[in-house]
Predict the structure.
Amino acid sequence: MTPDALLEVRGLQSGYGVSQVLDGLSFSMGVESVAVVGRNGMGKTTLCDTLVGFVPPSGGEVRLAGRRLDGMAPETIALAGIAYVPQGRRLFPSLTVDEHLAMLARRARGRRWTPDAVYELFPRLAQRRHHGGADLSGGEQQMLAVGRALLLNAPLIVMDEPSEGLAPTIVDVLVEAVHHLVAEGVAVLVVEQNLRAAVRMADRQLVMVSGRIEAEFSGDELLDRPELQRRYLGVGTAAQVATATQQTEGEHA
Amino acid sequence: MTAAVQSRFAESARDRLTALRRPSVVAVVVVAVAAAAWVLVFANGTPAGAAVDDPGKFLVTALDAVTFAGLLFVAASGFTLIFGLMRTVNMAHGSLFLLAAYVAIRVQEAMVGRSRNIDPADVGLLDWLVPLLAGAGVAAVLGLLIQQVFLQWNEGQEMRQTLVTLAITVVLADQMLREFGGLAQRVVWPGAVTHFFSIFGERYATTRLFMLAIAVLVGVLLWLWLTRTSVGMVIRAGVDDRQMVRGLGINIRRVFALTFLVGSFLAGVGGVLGASFAGAAPGTDGSWLLNALVVVIIGGLGSLKGAAAGSLLYGTVVAFSPAYLPSQYSYYAIIMTFGLLALVLAVRPYGLFGRPA
């Protein structure tokens, strides 16, 4: 284990019933932003759900700052320091914006992230504080989901497809928020289907194929290499993907 | 080809469904208008007579409806609270209702110092309030015990939880029969509220209004608890998405336990109110479980607003049918309840304020 690793995932196996989705997945990250990219059905959401305890792993280890968290209950993992912004936001339709934050305010009192601090980060939410969670625009919903997670004051935030269905200007706000968080010492693990957003949010991008991390890139490398995109992300036609796989054989794998 | 056929079939099925929906709304309006017109103008051959001819009888029936709805609401609110969060149909709700009633009767007898034919004049407000809290307290503790000992191991297994609570009702019913006997008994209202007043020449009991006042108080407190406190927010969030609540670091088991405690307490309050209003006897448990079920099915499982609306509708039908059905058909008043159920479910299959589970 590298000394500065905050999150250490080793040989993680997970799935639903007999169908194995994560197949010995390993990676580690420090206080930084890391993106996991990959095609549909490669297990990205299962990775998130397993990290936060929604899906129990069938093998492997998850350590946060050295403490083993795999197999623990979701509430234990959340309190131990992994906050979750799930795919589709999963806000509570019965609650207003204010109530989403108020229900978590007591534990957040006196810490860095309080409801007021969240409103300061996302002023648009403050204007909508009495609206229902379901009445918000997609971008506002995402801001609320991030704000809700922040109230845990966790050292690591896992975001599943945060840019999904958002207008480019809103994605900009999110990208800025992610960099802001990392600068404040919060690690962010982003799972993204949107390559451009992933590259903008994270310096390191891990490519997930069939339940494993197959390759790692940094900076804009992936954006400039269409043949890599074809091979790992299935961008383009089937024939193009096959050619790209042949061309890049031996690289990165 | 097959896909095209399927989609065309699906489309026509959907069309037929939407076509069915509108007539059912129309049917509801027609039924409601016809019922109102009947009660107001045409109901001459009935026990109460048309409302325009006998406004006193009408007013009394309306008061009966609202006050009975209050009792229904108290009994159903705890039931719907527990179901909404835990997806558990707590079949023991009626048993807790009856047990609280019996406990209150015993406590009241001890406080007044007599065991039969207690005169309301001898019953002070405290001689009613303390038994109320004692009965509801016992129900709350027993409910919590049931949840902790039997239900929490079967989280998410609705069928098992339902069968377990059903078994508990059978055991409790026998034990209560052994302990409290088979005769109907009642909690005596405090003398301070036991009066009659007259409206349009009809005598009406103040105790029924007192019962309504308590129900309103319970409703307001419950509403404040659910909307203004962080626990209430967590409970509502848990109704929406239990797993996500856990993902925010909230121990949902503790919330379940608290909900069961409060829901069982409410069953107990309902039981003592019911025993003051209509008495307690073996079988009361089953009939009040049924009442609570009907209310929440009409109102929508898991919704407080639904419990209030369902209580009012059900209370109205229960009070008005025997008074305004033609005299020779009064016997069939009970059928109207099922008519109401069928009508509501035809228009809103999940109840008035319900959402798919």
